[in-house]
Amino acid sequence: MSDLLRALPKIKQNGTAPRPTPFPLTTAHEDGGSSSSDSSVSTTDSIDTLRPVSEYSTSGPNPWSQYFNEELWLESSTETQKAIYHAYLTPPIDPAKGPLFICHHGAGASGMSFARFATAVKGIMPRAGVCSLEAREHGSTVTTLAGEEVLDFSIGSLVADALTMIRLLAEKKGWKTLPPTVLVGHSLGGAVVTRIAAEGSLGPQLIGFAVLDVVEGSAIEALMHMKTYIASRPASFASPEDAIDWHVRSRTIRDRESARASVPNLLVSHGDRWVWRTDLARTQKWWEEWFTGMSAGFLKGRAAKSLVLAGTDRLDRELMVGQMQGRQPEECFWVCCEV
């Protein structure tokens, strides 16, 4: 979705969603389409230029333990369904003081999308914690009690999943109350954390929330090109290393270490190939619902808030009015790009 939003000005000019333009790769199949994708384990188009890649063309995956202290599998059940939720965690040194950054990825991504963010936070705030959640069919699994799949990507269900994961996390860690929390959401994750903030679901423990790379207006406008964009990706890869290389060369991810951390989780083995874990086409029914009302919710959220975009021209009307009213001050950083 973020790639599509960055390409939106070109789409308006050309009329079609552009294909990524990687350097030639012989191992990725570009035939379009996509395919669908307990306990805890602990250890102690604003920039159009391609960053230089490393001296070798591919490099292997980085393990989750390089970025987080724990990998969590959190089980939940109701009268109609059961779930095994997946998350990564580095807990705050003092849960009473926090802060705890709880992150939610975008559609088709994974909890490891925030791997380098977790490292950066710990470098700046050594006593802080970071938890990165994974949505259903992105690493978490939700089924009926009989084990049949539950096809429901409504924003209400995604928000309920996130809140359940947060509750189970607190229970597992023995926290009587959630640490002072900052929610961080990218693309679809931004819609999820905005809804949580607007509804006050975490009460006074929510001290802030940040939305990355998405606003309601441009997101909904880009959705008409989403199917074409999905079909433009390689359908499979020979190995995770080839997928990492494709993401960097196509500028889908501009930072190689971030790709090494996050891309392997996007794939599952299928025969002798690696295919996408999440079938984004299956989520089409809910695309517009995800982002409708997001701008109003962002302005309504009662906590410190931050909206991080690639350019000021990406504000939609409601956010622009809010900015002019002083409800959302603007600050520009001129040397930066999405990793």
From TrEMBL:
Cell inner membrane as UniProt keyword: no
Cell wall biogenesis/degradation as UniProt keyword: no
Domain AB hydrolase-1: 102-326
Entries under SUPFAM superfamilies matching the protein: alpha/beta-Hydrolases
Biased composition (Low complexity): 34-49
Chain positions covered by the region annotation Disordered: 8-60
Catalytic activity field: [phosphatase 2A protein]-C-terminal L-leucine methyl ester + H2O = [phosphatase 2A protein]-C-terminal L-leucine + methanol + H(+)
Any one GO molecular-function label of the UniProt entry: protein methylesterase activity
Matches recorded under InterPro entries: AB_hydrolase_1, AB_hydrolase_fold, PPase_methylesterase_euk
EC code(s) of this entry: 3.1.1.-
Key words, A-Z: Hydrolase, Serine esterase
Pfam families linked to this entry: Abhydrolase_6
Protein family according to the UniProt entry: Belongs to the AB hydrolase superfamily.
Function: Demethylates proteins that have been reversibly carboxymethylated.
Protein name stated in the entry: Protein phosphatase methylesterase 1
Organism field: Corymbia citriodora subsp. variegata
